[in-house]
Amino acid sequence: MVESCMRSIFKHRFNLKNTIIMVVTASILSISAAHADDFTQCSQSFYGGVYPEFSNTKLSNNTQALCMDGFAVMYSGVSRTPLWSAEYLDRKRLQQAKQIDREDSFHEESRLPQSMRAKLSDYSGSGYDRGHLAPNGDMANRSQQYDSFSLANIAPQSPRNNRYIWRNIESATRYLTQQYGEVYTVTGVAFTDKKAKQLAGRVLVPSHFFKAVYIPAINQAGVYYAPNDESERIEIISIDELTSKIGIDVLPVLDAKTKAQALDLPLKAGEAIDIPTTEVEEPTWMLFVVAIFEWLMAQLQT
């Protein structure tokens, strides 16, 4: 009798322990999923529906994924800036964007915890512009435009870089979209200096800005990469080169050849890009038809 009771108690405790473990595990998974904010809600912003991957896992510390209206953001609570913003552009969207005048509405991102947020006061008197990653000029309606002014999409940017170099790059990207029909972009920041400057002791100042551009029509990609200063310097690099510099693979779905080659991107709207051409061999049946035609012409001349 005593032995039976002991077995019953042991079995009850064992089942209770398993139940607690299952509940705790489910809670942890639920919290993790909520923290990730599920990029599937804005998968159209990414080529192939796959978002950028961290090759340097340290960068993923204290990050928050955010689905915005018209674009997606990976925000860092360490730098209090976005690490990148991703967009899908096509002709229809840009045509709609042309119909909307700019309405500045910079604001804190309410979905972020207070401890992670950048504040408007952080930028006040800093000497840096509030630089958009996903630009206002790409936004097709007021809702998208409002989201583009969230500080979750903003990083401290050198005034000359923002107002000249970057404006030209954004215009050139829209031009490529008009030319080829659709473009995927990932715009972001890099922190390559050993010690980054800070705004108000809170917001880190990026050492570089970048914009990766992929054109599906020609299966070519390239990256604009510029120091965040007044020098107006800029270089065009490959996706692979960008990954080695910043620790993020911004377009993980692309094939190895496309990642390794840098498309010669234009620096201004209207400039042609240099696309490598390859000779296309004529199919065998066409060569046969040509041979018959030449034989017939020879018979008529005899």
UniProtKB/TrEMBL annotation:
**UniProt-listed Pfam families:** Endonuclease_NS (PF01223)
Q: Which GO terms describe its molecular function?
A: metal ion binding; nucleic acid binding; RNA endonuclease activity; single-stranded DNA endodeoxyribonuclease activity
Q: Which PROSITE patterns match?
A: NUCLEASE_NON_SPEC
Q: Which UniProt keywords apply?
A: Endonuclease, Hydrolase, Magnesium, Metal-binding, Nuclease, Signal
- Residues annotated as binding Mg(2+) are N162
**InterPro entries tied to this protein:** DNA/RNA_endonuclease_AS, DNA/RNA_non-sp_Endonuclease_sf, Endo_G_ENPP1-like_dom, ENPP1-3/EXOG-like_nuc-like, His-Me_finger_sf, Non-specific_endonuclease
Q: Where is the active site?
A: H132 (proton acceptor)
Q: Which residues form the DNA/RNA non-specific endonuclease/pyrophosphatase/phosphodiesterase domain?
A: 67-257
Tell me the SUPFAM superfamilies matching this sequence: His-Me finger endonucleases
- Enzyme Commission number: 3.1.30.-
Return the broad EC class.
hydrolase
- Signal sequence, renumbered to the chain: 1-36
Q: What cofactor does this protein call for? A: Mg(2+)
ENPP1-3/EXOG-like endonuclease/phosphodiesterase domain: which residues?
68-257
- Homology family: Belongs to the DNA/RNA non-specific endonuclease family.
Name of the protein in its database record: Endonuclease
